[in-house]
Specification:
By secondary structure, the protein is of the alpha+beta class. It is built from 7 helices and 8 strands.
């Protein structure tokens, strides 16, 4: 499976993955169960051994917006707020039955403090999360819906096996009808 969040495949992150696999608590999360809930304190992150999760932000009107995904071989958590032990900015929901290795903020802090190598990894993680967020912001402002859709297809060719068109539309900030028109145009 191709990495949706490319930074997670960097060689440096293998020690982070190993940390979760060796020290994390194994959990099974059923489809539609929540890993974190918006506006509730979160203090865990996890490595996804199997499955996938969606990140949902609910606005003040109660409308849900899909703002991200994370898949097998990647990490799940509202990382900045987890490390600060503050209220999550998003809800994180399993979109398939999933197997994860979960660690607390305290365990991750101890891991990152253990050596110069892990301190560097923490800095790289923060940089990669910033780059990912900045790129998404620029894409939303500068690319057409067709370009955004094609980027998604290139980045994760079999995404439609896991994500509904309605969710794709929310993630790309367009209507489901727009996605249908784009798909017809590209056929």
């Amino acid at each position: 499976m191709k990495a949706f969040n490319d930074y997670t495949r960097r060689e440096e992150f293998s020690i982070f993955r190993d940390f979760f696999l060796e020290h994390g608590q194994y959990k099974e999360v059923k489809k539609k169960e929540y890993f974190a809930r918006q506006d509730f304190t979160t203090a865990h992150a996890a490595y996804i051994k199997k499955g996938m999760f969606r990140y949902i932000r609910t606005d003040e009107k109660g409308c849900e917006h899909i703002v991200g995904y994370t898949f097998e071989g990647e990490y799940v958590g509202d990382y900045p707020w987890c490390m600060k032990k503050e209220k999550a900015m998003v809800s994180i929901q399993a979109t398939a039955d999933s197997q994860i290795y979960c660690a607390s903020a305290e365990e991750m802090t101890a891991f990152f403090s253990a050596s110069a190598e892990t301190q560097k990894l923490e800095r790289i993680l923060a940089e990669e999360l910033f780059v990912q967020t900045y790129k998404r912001l620029l894409d939303i402002y500068c690319k057409t819906p067709v370009e955004l859709y094609l980027d998604l297809v290139k980045r994760y060719p079999d995404f439609l096996d896991y994500i509904t068109l309605k969710e794709v539309a929310s993630f790309l900030r367009v209507t489901p009808e727009t996605i249908s028109h784009i798909r017809k145009k590209l056929e």
